[in-house]
Fold these 2 entries.
Entry 1:
Amino acid sequence: MRATAKAHTNIALIKYWGKRNEELILPTNSNLSITLDGFYTETTVHFKEELDRDVFILNEKEISGIPYDQVTNHLQLFRNYANRQGLFAEVRSLNKVPTAAGFASSASGFAALSGATAKALELELDEPTLSRFTRQGSGSACRSIYGGFVQWEMGKLDDGSDSYAIPIAPQDHWDLRVAAVVLTAKEKDVSSRVGMKRTVDTSVFYDGWLESLPRDLEEIKVGIAAKDFEKVGSIAEANCLKMHATTLGAIPPFTYWQDTTMSVMETVQQLRKDGTLAYFTIDAGPNVKVVYLPEDEEKVLAQLNATNGVEEVIVSKVGKGISYV
Ligand code: ADP
Ligand code: DP6
């Protein structure tokens, strides 16, 4: 009873930032991402009769505390579904992505964990069902089941059965590039889970954020279908800025940005002034992702690498969905 799955991270162009149900992980808004080929997690789940508890080994180190609890709670969902209570697993995972630094290690991590667990238990789950399970580990992870351009449909039902990812356009629809600009690989202070809860509970800007989302989502999908890069990029960049604005209205206020985050944002704006289309987006951390077209790669990378505070720039193409090794 053993299986290995590989899943890629994703970067949201329309952000998920808030839950309407914390236990089931149901979002306050539908959102949309690109799956990235450059960052991924490979996870092996091995159920063994002789274990009396789950074991979680991440990047060769045995893990305890909250990350362990999240993994074992996630395995429990599958055990309950398969009626295999009391059967424990050794989980070995390798992140080809910096952990907890705003590069969505939780997205590829929980997608790979879900896929490997379902396979190891010989559950024949269709992709929407796998996405629903994955969502309960970490929300954004439910989008990593699919490659290409993916929407997480917020759903309306209280039990979450209609809240899962759907593919909008396949990997080969559009050859976009995403540069992950590494400023620091330090673990962050406020996790996305804690940050979004504080924002929902206290931010005076949260209602404005929610109001603006349906239009952003509809418009960006029109842009993706038409491969209108200016439209897609400008909506994504504005959506990211609105999400980060909500953190400044929270009590106590906080921001994920550093001075170097703003330097990269300025570089991207300067590229556009000079006639090169590039747009930034930022998740719950200081690092920046820059979206651009392949023909502009040389110019974009030269400017990013020359920006103050940039340690490394890692380029991704649009990635594929979950696979089994
Ligand atoms: P990130 O920006 O890296 O996604 P988060 O704070 O959202 O940061 O999530 C990081 C958390 O995701 C880790 O602390 C851990 O609990 C979980 N995680 C990361 N990688 C894995 C993995 N490979 N398998 C299971 N859980 C993981
Ligand atoms: C800013 O999916 O990490 O990256 O559901 O609590 O695990 P939990 O949160 P998570 O939040 C991601 C937030 C984001 C935006 C996004 O990816 O849509």
Entry 2:
Amino acid sequence: MILILGGTGEARELAARVPAVSSLAGRVSTPALPVGEVRIGGFGGVDGLAQWLRDNGITAVVDATHPFARQITANAFEACARVGVPFLVLRRPGFDPQPGWLWVDDVAGAARAIPGSRVFLTTGRQDLAEFAGCPQWFLARMVEPPEPPMPQRIEVLLSRGPFTVDGELALMREHRIDVLVTKDSGGRMTSAKLEAARRLGIPVVIVRRPPLPPAETVADVDAAVRWLGTAGA
Ligand code: NAP
């Protein structure tokens, strides 16, 4: 049996093409579910995951988690090496970089480098605490309601997308946004805000992806399906 570590559109696409069990972290109360078997919740670190791979007769693991889900990818790399199960990372490419973007290494760096006062923030609920001490006003878009700490001056917009350039233009104009702070998540579904920012001449602060473990990596679902064929999973 193949294990797909999920939480992304690519993971759902892959689950629709190969028989597999998909795993979700359980962060979202009403997740978009992949077809096929699904398990939800953490494994209990590297030890728990290694045990789970053995107990469930897993023959290959595809990590199709979000590019910023660093911990689960590191854990899966180590657990697969320990148990001797083939491991592949499926990561969509990052956004096409535009001149003038301000690149930072992490979310804390973004919080220190905001060149504006009315911020459109799309780094996600889990990173909101990093902006708690910021004096700016924030329009923060996320899927689930956040918990404190968070910035004092904030409007939370609960939305899962997909988003259009026209919609993002209207949103940024309506809220008189003067800077966009986001992550290099990649993908068409979330790139509309970047195009809208470009058209409005709004500066963009963008967080670099965390490094990947030295695992075999592919950029699209077709390549992951081919790899599963050759991995004999
Ligand atoms: P993370 O920091 O890498 O992982 C933290 C812990 O959550 C892991 O150690 C693991 O717990 C558990 N976990 C994460 N992904 C899991 C999965 N697919 N199945 C089972 N357990 C999982 O992850 P995160 O950034 O919190 O992201 C959680 C999930 O949300 C991921 O599946 C990711 O694809 C999705 N997501 C993340 C972002 C983002 O910006 N980070 C955005 C969109 C979607 P144990 O150690 O107990 O196994």
